[in-house]
Amino acid sequence: MPEAPVPPTPRERRALIAGCGITGPVLALFLTRCGYTPVLFEARPEPDDHAGSFLNLGPNGRGVLETLGIADTVLAHGAATTRLVFSNHKGRTIGSNPEHTTCVKRGLLNKALRECAEQAGIQVEFGRRLTDVKGGRPGEITAVFADGSTTDGEFLVGADGINSATRAAVFPGAPAPSFTQGIGSGGFARTHAPGSPDGTFRMMFGLRGFFGYQVLPGGEVYWFENHTETSEPARGWAASITDGEWREQLIRRHAGDHRLVGEILRATEGPIGRWPLYDLPSVPAWHQGDVALIGDAAHAISPHLGQGAALGMEDAVVLAKCLRDLPHARAAFAAFESLRRPRLEGLIRQARRTGGQMTPAGPVGRALRDLMLPFFLRLGLKNAETVYGYRVDWSAPVTAAGR
Ligand SMILES: Cc1cc2nc3c(=O)[nH]c(=O)nc-3n(C[C@H](O)[C@H](O)[C@H](O)COP(=O)(O)OP(=O)(O)OC[C@H]3O[C@@H](n4cnc5c(N)ncnc54)[C@H](O)[C@@H]3O)c2cc1C
User: Could you tell me how many helices (H) and strands (E) the chain has, helices first?
Assistant: First the structure.
């Protein structure tokens, strides 16, 4: 009997993803479910699982991880935040709201997501800093890296953060990230002073800065500080001062506030993160040809809503659905942008407004704020449903109209 012809091997559907931070591995995991072979290219020479401070992941982000079946694994090192309690600079409680987020060290979140991707067989390549992108015929894209090497794929997604090189390559005229006139700091302290690990995140309107902290099970205190700075710090500012000098500056800044702030700052071990806070209000387009931007690369939001990571995860599931259901990447990218842009731009504006409300006021402004805060918190609770309640039904199909 003549031998049956061997059917041609289907061309590998190689999806290139620049950036193995938060959004990149989540997208890669969804893409493996749609028949793609994703590859993650990460600029860092090696994993840094202690990088960054911590963040609170909203239930909308957790919902995406649940769809992947990895929420418990990824958030194993986190702890629930079940209540936000606000106080004035004297420590007097002026309002509170229920909360449903997970407080987790950023490095451990990155590590867990990367490990889930690796366990799913996804290739993660470190030391691969994307510098340029070259398009060919539809469905053919080449990524160029800092060492001169290149790689080909069917499309490329830039999940490479707020200073995205993908964005710079594809949209050289796109607006740069915008300084929000805020400086953020964060660290970890060991002290018994602030109380027990009861799931409460305590937020204090200090006289010259906003201070928040939560005691985690095990007793470690996760804290952050935000204050206003009208002029944008020079590039390299954060590295130009030592952790000790920055701690002393923060202690002086909060000298008139409740004593706990100083105690937590003094008890801080290890590095103190410090960042000028930026957002990216409106990049005119999030895709061109076979290249798309997601996460902070497309729409970085200032941290005042605690939503950037969750929104990147939302992006990942929506984009994967578009790639699964529409005939080619270009149609998928267009649908993705029309589905996501209104929500994202609204939230970026909202985060800016929230940041503005943290700005310290004079005595009259403070008294008014203390009086009005419970009312604003009730309003905030209604709004939280729009932010936190967003869920993507993975099984529902997307149409070309982006619905
Ligand atoms: C102070 C602060 C507090 C925050 N708090 C919260 C919070 O409480 N809750 C929340 O949800 N969000 C928070 N965020 C926002 C959140 O951190 C970001 O929105 C989130 O990290 C975005 O994920 P991403 O994957 O898009 O980008 P990133 O996490 O920045 O990941 C990008 C990855 O790309 C890599 N990369 C960069 N350039 C290249 C290149 N050229 N080639 C290849 N790889 C590259 C980077 O090394 C990195 O690993 C906060 C942000 C800040 C600054």
Answer: 12, 17
Alpha carbons within 13 angstroms on the beta-carbon side of residue 44 total 13
Average pLDDT over residues 347-372: 84
Of 23, 60, 64, 180, which is best to mutate to test ligand 1, by the most ligand atoms within 8 angstroms of its C-beta? Answer: 23
Q: Which percentage of the chain shows pLDDT scores above 90?
A: 80
Q: What is the pLDDT of residues 178-229, one digit of tens each?
A: 999 999 999 999 988 788 899 999 999 999 999 999 999 989 999 999 999 9
CA 32–ligand 1 middle distance (angstroms): 22
Secondary structure (3-state) at 305: helix
Tokens, residue 209: 């800065």
- Residue of 55, 293, 304 with the most ligand 1 atoms within 8 Å of its CB, for mutation: 55
Q: What pLDDT sits at residue 11?
A: 56
End-to-end CA distance of the chain: 52
Q: Walk me through the domains of the chain, giving residue ranges and CATH numbers.
A: 14-51+106-177+280-364 (3.50.50.60)
pLDDT for the residue 360:
66
Retrieve residue 198's tokens. Answer: 């009861």
Residues with CB under 6 A from ligand 1: 18-24, 41-44, 55-57, 129-130, 159-161, 165, 184, 275, 295-297, 303, 306-310, 312
Q: b vs e for 104-117, b when ≥16 Cβ sit within 10 Å of the residue's Cβ?
A: bbbbbbbbbbbbbb
The model's pTM: 0.94
Residue 131 CA, closest ligand 1 atom number: 41
Q: Tell me, what's the pLDDT at 184?
A: 96
The model's pLDDT over 71-115, given as tens digits with 9 standing for 90+, comes to: 999 999 999 999 999 999 999 999 999 999 999 999 999 999 999
**Strand-strand pairing, 200-205 and 79-87:** parallel
Q: Which residues does residue 291 pair with via DSSP β-bridges, in sequence order?
A: 156, 288
3-state SS, residue 147: coil
Q: Whose CA is nearest to atom 37 of ligand 1?
A: 160
Q: How far apart are CA 82 and CA 36, in angstroms?
A: 38
